[in-house]
Every structure is written in C-alpha cells, then in structure tokens.
Amino acid sequence: MASITLGGNPINTSGELPKVGSMAPNFELVKTDLSVASLGDFKGSRLVLNIFPSIDTGTCATSVRTFNAKASALENTKVLCISRDLPFAQKRFCGAEGLENVENLSDFKTGSFGKEYGLEITDSVLAGLHSRVVIVLDENGTVKYTEQVSEIADEPNYDAALTALEK
User: Fold this and answer.
1) Under a CB-based contact definition with an 8 Å cutoff, are residues 28 and 38 in contact?
2) DSSP states of 135-157 as a string?
3) CA distance 100 to 53
4) C-alpha to C-alpha distance for 144 and 95, rounded to whole angstroms
5) What is the DSSP annotation of 79-138?
6) What's the number of CA atoms in the CB half-sphere (13 Å) around residue 50?
7) Which of 9, 10, 49, 132 gives 20 to 30 Å between its CA and that of 167?
8) What is the pLDDT of residues 11-70, one digit of tens each?
9) Pseudo-torsion of CA 90, 91, 92, 96, nearest 10°?
10) Around Cβ 161, how many Cβ atoms within 10 Å?
11) Helix (DSSP H) and strand (DSSP E) numbers for the chain
C-alpha cells in the first residue's frame, strides 16, 4: 500500500506498483471503440503507461497533452493513457483536443487493472479511481521505471519517464 495525498490529506492505494525489472502484469482494458486491448497487443513497442484518476481534471488533462506532444518524437513508443473514465469521455476529450499520439484505455468494467497494478485509491472521495502513476515498459513488457506521484494534484516527472526509455 502506498500513502499519497489529495490536497495535502493522506489517502492510500491498494498495493505496491510492479517492481522495476519485473514483467508487467497482463491487462485487458477497453479502447475508445469499445474493443478490448491487452498488454500482449503492444508487444514489440516501448510503452509509457500514463495512469490517472479522470481525464476531466486539469492535471490529468495536462499529462495527456504533455505525453501526446513528447511521444510524437519517440521511435517505437506508445503512450497508453489509462483511467476508469468511460471510453466515450476519453474519446471526446482527445477528439476535442486533437490528440493523436496517445491511446486511451478504460478500466471502467472491473477496475482489475488498478487492483493488479496496486494503484487503486482505497479511501477518500476518490476511492475506486486510479492514483496518478507513470510506468515505463520496454518492448518485452519489462518494467523499466515507475512513479507513484505523491500528491494527486501534481504532474508526473515527464523527463524521468522519457529518460527511462533510453536505458
């Protein structure tokens, strides 16, 4: 369990993030066209998992925009933006913003991604949503970098995540 804050008030997550050097747990998440994507669908690509509570908050939207801009310059890299938002909301946001270099995936059906990856918020008004996390995977699904952002309202360390791709 990780202890993080929401507006300076302590809240908790359901577990620990996958360890650097371990294989990322498989997942099945819903795409904006309502089809299902699994981790295996991305084998051979480097991945940045940009995970957040909701696309409809300022910090979450900023992280999607920032990774969209930075990802366009990266070879063999995909940015997966993962939340419990409905796929319709994810599609609306990216369409309105003209974002084409990220793929939105939803954990709305079961929340199993948040539980498997140890990042589901377990208390506070955000209980059941995902905490703000970045996980970088190599082409084989090995975890290269993780960041559990300690304050939900703060942005992740974009440069550290992108630097992990170079290692």
Assistant:
1) yes
2) EEE-TTSBEEEEEE-SBTTSPP-
3) 21
4) 30
5) EEEEESS-HHHHHHHHHHHT--SEEEEE-TTT-HHHHHTT-BB-SSTTTTSBPPEEEEE-
6) 30
7) 132
8) 999 999 999 999 999 999 999 999 999 999 999 999 999 998 987 666 646 776 777 777
9) 110
10) 22
11) 4, 9
Count of residues making up the chain = 167
Q: Which residues on neighbouring strands pair with residue 143, listed in sequence order?
A: 137
Structure tokens at 69: 């801009």
CA separation, residue 6 to residues 81, 112, 132, 150, 156 (Å): 21, 22, 11, 9, 15
Q: Catalytic one among 60, 81, 136, 165?
A: 60
Q: pLDDT (tens digit, 9 = 90+) per residue, 78-112?
A: 889 899 999 988 877 655 555 566 788 999 999 99
Identify whether 81 is a catalytic site residue: no
